[in-house]
Structure formats: structure tokens, C-alpha cells
């Protein structure tokens, strides 16, 4: 089959941002469907946009001001209460949620598990998951495949293998089901809370949120305890590394509940986000056949069979595709903070209690920061990296994503392996719709035909 080339000037799918002020109920309606649809279009032109929907909020897209929020004045901008309330039932006071000293000691204890050497040691798990994906896609034959679901399967394979590898007490399917159900229900609630809506606005699903989560925690506890009594065999996974980890200053180690909460955090924070990066990268590869040919030529010249950790450094164009996918469709499309004291950002007064949002989706499409911001141009990354605070798929400052290099390595291994084996073409009329509830997903799936090459 001859693949259609990209139409000149065509743009990949995007979220229509609002061009008129929304009232409270319009905001609720719009945001229940897509959080990003409440971002004013003007946020992609101006440094700051403020409003009030219950609470006062500010969306900041000025790199200097973002630097102050995430790095220089971090004590004034802890993670928003909303984010914490939302995730606490599933992941406790783990690294993702904790503040101050309780955050610091956990971050110091977990950091070595994500060192370059350890992430590299985990690469064979990623290569094996990529190989199983190739087999599944090949089995589907000429039928179109939903690469969103396929990538969710791959990344769950990886994250469950590197957290609870070989633990009989850990039922992967049950945990996967509980986490996905939690994320989709929790997302609906968070939207309303991010907007600062009063408690009497009905929150769908609040009552049954914790059921599956309790079973999942009990299962993870059993797996942690079973492992604690055993010597690590072979390459240590994240649980072995956390069991061995300790705060370098106080020598404090994590107890069972802390280990469990952090491992579940890695699963919640790491698996869907990486699956989305891969699914969007594949959508873009099918959208732009020329870029796909270039990426395939690179992958085929480097990869023999399945990509390995050592191949990653030799796949610069594949990495550019991933960087550009993370720019256009950042899985964490916004992060939010609650201001503690009175402050100024871009000359605007920020009051204690105000919600300060970094709308990463809008930042990555800001007209003053990016040329042709809505276009897919992986080659833009050849010229070098932009201003550090103009591109934040992993956040920044001390709370920067601990799993960034893990995710980028996994994305490169899986993408290069698939590109070396298949040519991807879109299914006409089935473009995905970018929708953010908790993460930015391709709604409707990424349906592609995969032809063996
Ligand atoms: C492409 C995939 C990923 C994306 C886009 C992503 C994005 C992010 C972002 C934006 C933050 C900062 C949130 C904030 O400041 O409010 C974050 C934090 C975090 N991420 Fe990731 N992440 C990814 C993969 C992973 C993986 C694979 C893991 C673990 C295995 C992970 C674990 C964490 C943890 C534990 C934090 C909290 C760190 C702290 O507060 O000290 N993430 N991530």
C-alpha cells in the first residue's frame, strides 16, 4: 500500500481553546468533557491570564515567572490542595504528594533507584515488552489496531515488571483495573476542584472511589512483605532498590506502607503518562509519513530485532519525535499550585489561597516562544533545546518528574522497535480527539494500520 504523504500545511489534531469568557456553568460543562477546553486562547499569546470561578486562579505562561513558581520561590507554591486530596486515597503521603521534610527524605531515598545506571539496567524489561507488542501487532494482521490500548498494555507490562517482578502475591490485572478505574473517576472530580467550585456542586463518583483501591493496597502490601524476607535475585527492580534505599542524612528507611505508597505512585504516575507519549508519537508518525520514513531508516540502521538500552543514544531522530509529541500533547497538560503568601507574578498580585496554574499545553503552543506552534516539526529540536521554562513535559525544579529518563528510555525503545518492523497509516475518519481529564488522552483511540516492512 502506498502511504499518503502529509498534506502541506496540515496540522495535527488540537484542542480548540476558548475565545470568550466562560461563566461558571459553561466552565463546568466544558471542563467535565475536557479540562484544556477552559484554557483561554489568549494564554498562548500573553504571559499571564487571571480569572475567578469560585476561587481566584492565574494561568502563567511566562518562562521567568514559571521559574519562580517551580524553582526560586517553591516554598510559596506547594502543590495545590486539590491535587493532594485527589491522589491521597490511592497513594498516601508518598513522594508525589508530600511536602517539606517528609517529601525531602523520600525523594533522597528514591533518587538512586532512578540513576542512569539503574534505569539502564531495567532496559531489558522494556525491550521484552516491546517484543511482545510486536508479536501482538503482527497477530492483528491487516486489521487496524488501537495503539492507545496497545501502548497502555506495553507500559503496564513494564511498570509492573519493574515494581513487583515475579511476586506471586501481586495480581497485575486486578491492580491495573483498580488504577484505571480510580484515575478515570478521580479525574472527573479534580476538574471541578481545580476550578475552585464549592463543595455543594455534585461530584460524580466520590462515594465509590476507594473500594478497589483498598484491595489494591492490601495486595501491594503482601507483595512488599513477601519480598522483604527474600534476597534479591538477578537485576534489582524498583522494589529491591527502594528496600535497600535510605535517607543519606538520617539513614531512615521506608516501612511497608511507605514502600507500597511509593511503588503505587510509580505505577499511577508512570504508566499511563508513558503510554500516552507513545500513542501520540505513533499518531504523529502516521500523520507525517515523511518523518516516519526518516525515523524508520534511523531505527533500522541501529536496531537488530528489538531496540536495547544501548541503542537509545544512537536514535536522535526518534528522540526528536518523542520530544515533539511531548510538546504538542504533554500528558500532564497542566500543573497547579496554591499560593501561600502575597506575591507578584508578571506584575500581577497573587493572594494567599489563589490557584496558580502552569498550563503546560498552552505554554508548549505559545506564539512568542515557538515558531509555527501547532505544527509537527520534529526537526525543530535539531537547532537545540528552547528556554528551559518554555518546555516542561516533566515539570521542573526540585519536584521535577523523578521518572523522566526512565520514561524517555522506554519510549525510545518501544517506538524504535515498532518503527523498525511496521509502517503505520491512519484509518481515515478516525482521528483521535485530544481530551484531558487527569492526563491528555487521544479520545477515540489511535487507530492505525500496521503493515510489516
Ligand atoms: C512521559 C511520561 C511522564 C510524564 C509526562 C510525567 C510528568 C510528570 C510531571 C509534569 C511531574 C511534576 C508534577 C508537578 O510538578 O506538579 C511529575 C512528577 C512525578 N513523576 Fe512523572 N511523568 C512521566 C513518567 C513518570 C514515570 C515513568 C515515573 C516513575 C516510574 C514517574 C514518577 C513521578 C513521581 C514520583 C513524581 C513526583 C516527584 C516529586 O514530587 O518529587 N513519572 N511527572
Automatic annotation (TrEMBL):
Gene3D superfamilies per record: Cytochrome P450
Domain of life: Bacteria
Keyword terms, alphabetized: Heme, Iron, Metal-binding, Monooxygenase, Oxidoreductase
Sections of the chain in a coiled coil: none
Keyword Membrane: no
Cofactor: heme
Binding site for heme: 401
Keyword flag Aminoacyl-tRNA synthetase: no
Family statement: Belongs to the cytochrome P450 family.
Protein name: Cytochrome P450
Species this chain originates from: Pseudoponticoccus marisrubri
Organism lineage: Bacteria, Pseudomonadati, Pseudomonadota, Alphaproteobacteria, Rhodobacterales
